[in-house]
Amino acid sequence: MTALLEIVGARKAFGGVRAVDDCSLTVEEGSITALIGPNGSGKTTLFNLITGYLKADGGEFRFRGRDVTGSDPGRLYRQGLTRTFQQARVFPHMTVTENLVVAGGYSWRDLLVPRVLGRDRSRADVLLEEFRMTHVAELPASELSYGQRKLLEFAAVLMSEPRLVLLDEPTAGVNPVMIDTMERHIRERHAAGVTFLVVEHDMQFVMRLCDPVVVLDNGKEIFSGPPSEVQQNPLVLDAYLGT
């Protein structure tokens, strides 16, 4: 496999706290890579640096072989890199379908124009069927359950046909049935060629889905390898499992 995302020496401090401290990691194309670590280890901050929601204090970021250091989220989205958030971000007063169409690159004003009923509307319909949400297509997103909102956000990021999707705690706060549903969709999209980088605290979910597993502690990578090894690594046991 070849490197799809490369991070070299990323740094970010908040006051005197180094949230990301000379961190380097690689996400191979075609992988489902996990990013784990104790609370405060820098996982979400690193996500924000990768996706342009925070400006790094230093380091280099490369996507698909191109230097994207300092790129904003919109530019990265158009290049094929997108993400979800810990708390699902949807437009509550828009319908489920409208949320998907907006994610395809339209503003809410564009929804009044007939042209959105073409290719992007068709793609939205396909995703709604794939995610088994056709029955709620015309409901406001505010009427969805929390798990359904998570699924809607996941479907929305797929509207751009991304190469790399960053999932920030996709199973947090959802029931076991929804966890299984989320895992199935990740596997299906991965089989279709999408690469994933996943921040997750559910270790059972990580161990059965992700390879490799990258572990952060104090803003630095301390381990990267297969899930069979992460549970036996003494640095990981000390930092993450508290043994």
Descriptive notes:
This protein is an alpha/beta fold and 243 residues long. It has 2 domains: 3-89 and 161-239, P-loop containing nucleotide triphosphate hydrolases (Rossmann fold, 3-Layer(aba) Sandwich); 91-143, no CATH class. It contains 9 helices and 10 strands. It has helices at residues 43-50, 73-79, 96-103, 119-130, 146-157, 176-191, 203-209, 227-230, 234-239; strands at residues 3-14, 17-28, 32-36, 58-63, 66-67, 81-83, 164-168, 195-199, 213-217, 220-225. The strands form 2 sheets. Strands 6-7-8-3-9-10 form a 6-stranded mixed β-sheet, sandwiched between helices. A 4-stranded antiparallel β-sheet has the order 2-1-4-5, with helices on one face. Helix 3 (96-103) packs parallel to helix 5 (146-157). The two termini are 34 Å apart.
What's the SSE blueprint?
Layout: E1 3-14, E2 17-28, E3 32-36, H1 43-50, E4 58-63, E5 66-67, H2 73-79, E6 81-83, H3 96-103, H4 119-130, H5 146-157, E7 164-168, H6 176-191, E8 195-199, H7 203-209, E9 213-217, E10 220-225, H8 227-230, H9 234-239
Parallel strand pairs: 3-8, 3-9, 6-7, 7-8
Antiparallel strand pairs: 1-2, 1-4, 4-5, 9-10
Helix pairs in contact: 3-5
Sum up the structure in keywords:
single chain; 243 residues; alpha/beta; Rossmann fold; 2 domains; 6-stranded mixed sheet; 4-stranded antiparallel sheet; 9 helices; 10 strands; globular
